[in-house]
Amino acid sequence: REDRGRSPQRDFHILFVPRRSLLCEQWLKEQGVLGSFIHREQYSLDLIPFDGDLLSMEAESTFKECYLESDQTSLYHAAKGLMTLQALYGTIPQIFGKGECARHVANMMIRMKREFPGSQNSIFPVFDTLLLLDRNVDLLTPLATQLTYEGLIDEIYGIQNTYVKLPPEKFAPKKQGEGGKDLPTEPKKLQLNSAEELYAEIRDKNFNAVGSVLSKKAKIISAAFEERHHAKTVGEIKQFVSQLPHMQAARSSLANHTSIAELIKDITTSEDFFDNLTVEQEFMSGIDTDKVNNYIEDCIAQKHPLIKILRLVCLQSVCNSGLKQKVLDYYKREILQTYGYEHILTLNNLEKAGLLKPQTSGRNNYPTIRKTLRLWMDDVNEQNPNDISYVYSGYAPLSVRLAQLLARPGWRSIEEVLKMLPGPHFEERQQLPTGLQKKRQHGENRVTLVFFLGGVTYAEIAALRFLSQMEDGGTEYVIATTKLINGTSWIKSLMEKLEPAPF
Amino acid sequence: LKESKRAVNSLRDIVDDDDDDLERVSWSGEPVGSISWSIKETASSSTSSLEGRDSSLQKGSSSYAAFPKQVSSYSLSSLFKGRNKLPSFQSLSDALSDTGVKNYAPELRRPKAEYKDYSSDWSPKDTVRRMQRGKVCSLERFRSLQHKLVLLDEAVAGHDGNVITAVLIFLKRTLRREILFRELEVRQVALCHLIHFLKETGEQKLLLDLLRFLDRTEEVALSQYREHLNIQDVEKRREFLKGCIGLPFSAEDTSHIQDHFTLLERQIIIEANDRHLETAGQSEIFRKYPRKASILNMPLVTTLFYSCFYHYTEAEGTFSSPTNLKKTFKIPDKQYVLTALAARAKLRAWDDVDALFTTKNWLGYTKKKAPIGFHRVVEILQRNNAPVQVLQEYVRLVEDVETRLNLATKYKCHDVVIETYRDLKDRIQLTAYKCKVERGSAEEEKINSILSN
CB-CB: which of B107, B169, B257 is closest to A38? Predict the structure, then answer.
């Protein structure tokens, strides 16, 4: 309104991304300014490609809406996104799923296909299988601290739309004889994706294996630069010079990642990180999940950040199929007394989401699930992993295990365990026009699209990529999700906003 | 990306009728007296449907333009000439031709496709479909309760949240509350949508009424409690919290809410008192350590720390004494000791620290005990730069030998190291430790004398 008064010649347009919202328009109308916009449009973004094998809707409130508000609107958009995907890459013949939301999305997809027969196309299907997974089938994985290189960057610094902002000190170019006066104060912004060769190589490795890759790379690059002394003929010099940009890019890439690795190492070698990880691993391997944990108590007493506390108590609760009432009450009391009573609202949300709740049936299912699906592997090899459990140095993400077992030998073998996990599991088939039914050649991999409804972590992505490149693994994976998350951002989205709303 | 963009655009032609025109859903025929007037006029004559278009192009004021129907018996065209005039009650025979469109909306040209499939009688199903595609639909023609419910059910079946919300807004406006509640009670999905909508728009009163109707008492309680965050004035907030106590929370939550109220009440008293003390300038502690922030709305443990800092010696009877807080809020020993320790250590009141851990046993001997490990005590003391002599006392009390040695070595509590190695009868380590002490110091002498025995 103010703007309008100042410059009456200005035209105002509004572009809703990814979609218009009636609530927004309603509010604008109430403010009396809805009419001031000449164009009101929406630019629909459903699935956004983040990398060659990764798509995300970046809808951060999906988990909260689906599990706290019982509002499944974002699933509708997920289904639409999948329809668009099928229009581009062919109808997906097989749909598997586990969870209420998965069931809902599959139903919508089938119905949408029925209602728009014109969308039947003649594209050879790229995907053989679609696997829809509810986040609440596996509440454990996002709570644990990720231990892959990319996972740790996200945990510590937060990756936003493939960009990360880092403390600038280590990235200042080293100039001879200059004091520390000219240190940059702006955080260093870096883009992280597979277009960067070195990053693609180290992103999914366990952090402990990154160092050796970097040092090998350093040797190779140094040797390459040394070549300049050996170039004698004009031809050789010319060749060297033409390689120079590539070598310089490689060198700068190495410098960046060496700095990042140093920053991460400072954190991972700290006592607090070690203590935290120890407790996480105890819980995940089933140790002492039924009593109040000393480390958690100490952290509350020292007033560590609330989200850290919440991740740990939720982890304990999930690994115990809910906490004993006495233990739960004890934690709640300590949290409320230390951080403030208003957090009752957040604790309530966490209970509703199934993350921090009392044990209802008196039975703890987690040990059975853990043993049957082999979620805890003692003999993990971080350098040369042979199993997906390397991404958490011992814990195999449950969601990825389900995907792994679906491919081989199939879910029939784990019927009992599947029943212990929330939500229905199902299989659907979509008809392909004859002639498009593909017979995979011998040795050719099947392609499975795994869609995480409610969020996915980088560690899970790394685990799926690990499965893709396994020798005779048989399946390649493409990952889609409603949002890329880590434990902190995920819990944050479930916390009650405590400041009064701006309007 | 370019390829997929091209493909997606070509896809739209298949799936959707219109491409890039304005997509709006209007759900109100509200202030436009003439439209609803004309609805009443037409209701008796036919069941034809009307399309109202919300095209507000002007500054502030809304003008409505509708488009002529091509098929039905009459057309309702825009009755509003000019930009800033009020709606005029003109005859319906106005602007029957297409060309009339340009007069009312000269800046916009609507593609013909917009009213291509303009039919007179959309079923609820079709209406929902059109709304899903972002087309304009007036819902006013769904007048009977039954029609409205069918519309709602169709919207729910279509899964598009926007459409469901739009229909709910319409129903909320046109149905009596009791009827709306009753009908939603058996329609879970729509119910959840409405609750979410009311939360987002902050329509607290209606939300609470709805939750009460559904007997979701705990949610009512929590929802009401949440409101306290919007109250900035402390007194008002205190009153509000008092009112929350009787609400139907779960058993444990009730006690927490009670505590919240009691705490805020205390804080108001303490704050008023202390502010007075501070300005009077007589109290030493407030002069030496002026307060950086008010105690209002701080968590309980923070309040306890404050109390141990500024009011440690007060008798249990006063509101600001730590012991009073401990008793009122049933603060466990562990938490109390830790907090008191942190506060006294910050003030470097080592005697007070000592007193915290000294108890007299039945024989009258004093003994040091702690509900927390002594290594924690050491940690906190060290963080507050306690002198080595003080630190040493507590390192000595650490039970676990290895921890004791680690801490002693780390913080240079030589005597403790020496004594421990002596007790362990570890000559080698003791000899090795000699290099860590100053030459000619009392510690070196001590080591030598032990070694020579």
Answer: B107
Q: How far is A400 from chain B (nearest CA, A)?
A: 28
Q: Can you give the residue range of the structural domain that contains B251?
A: 231-331
Number of structural domains chain A divides into: 4
Q: Which residues of A touch B259 (CB under 8 A)?
A: 336, 341
Distance CA A386, CA B187 (A): 50
- Asked whether residue A182 is domain-assigned, the answer is no
Q: What is the ipTM of this complex?
A: 0.82
> Do the domain assignments include residue A181?
no
* Chain B CB within 8 Å of residue A469 CB: no
Question: Could you tell me the residue range of the domain that residue A446 belongs to?
Answer: 46-141+397-498
Residues A38, A53: one domain?
Answer: no
How close does chain A come to B434, measured CA to CA in Å? 29
Beta-strand runs (E) in B18-148: none
The nearest CA of chain A is from the CA of B220 a distance in Å of 12
The whole-model pTM stands at 0.80
For residue B252, give the nearest of A65, A329, A501 by CB distance: A329
Query: From CA A7, how far away is CA A4, in angstroms rounded?
Result: 5
Classify residue A287: in a domain, yes or no: yes
Which two structure tokens, joined as six digits, stand for B107? 């800046």
What is the DSSP annotation of A297-340? HHHHHTT--HHHHHHHHHHHHHTTTSB-HHHHHHHHHHHHHHH-
Tens digit of pLDDT at every position of chain A (503 positions): 565 566 666 777 777 766 666 667 777 777 777 777 777 777 777 888 899 899 999 988 999 999 998 888 889 999 999 998 998 888 899 999 999 999 999 999 998 888 876 656 677 888 999 999 999 999 999 999 999 999 999 999 999 999 999 998 877 765 545 454 556 678 889 999 888 999 999 999 999 999 999 999 889 888 888 877 787 888 888 888 888 888 888 889 999 999 999 999 999 999 999 999 999 999 999 999 999 999 999 899 889 999 999 999 999 999 999 999 999 999 999 999 999 999 999 999 999 999 999 998 878 999 999 999 999 999 899 999 999 999 999 999 999 999 999 998 999 999 999 999 999 999 999 888 777 666 666 667 889 999 999 999 999 999 999 999 998 878 999 999 999 999 999 999 999 887 665 54
Distance CA A401, CA A140 (A): 13
CB atoms near residue B444 (< 10 Å): 18
Residues 137-176 of B with CB under 8 A from A: 159-162, 164-166, 169
Provide the chain A residues 273-332 that lie in CB contact (below 8 A) with chain B. Answer: 298, 301, 303, 329, 332
The answer on A244 and A165 residing in a single domain is: yes
DSSP B384-435: TT--HHHHHHHHHT-SSHHHHHHHHHHTT-HHHHHHHHHHHT-HHHHHHHGG
CATH code, domain with A473: 3.40.50.1910
Residue B70 located in a structural domain: no
Number of Cβ pairs < 8 A linking chain A and chain B: 144
CB contact, 8 Å: B57 with chain A? Answer: yes
Q: Is B62 on the interface with A (CB under 8 A)?
A: yes
CA distance, residue A500 to nearest chain B CA (Å): 5
Residue B159 lies in a domain: yes
Question: Phi and psi (nearest 5°) for A133?
Answer: -130, 130
Q: Does residue A1 lie in a domain region?
A: no
Q: Which two tokens stand for residue B25?
A: 């859903």
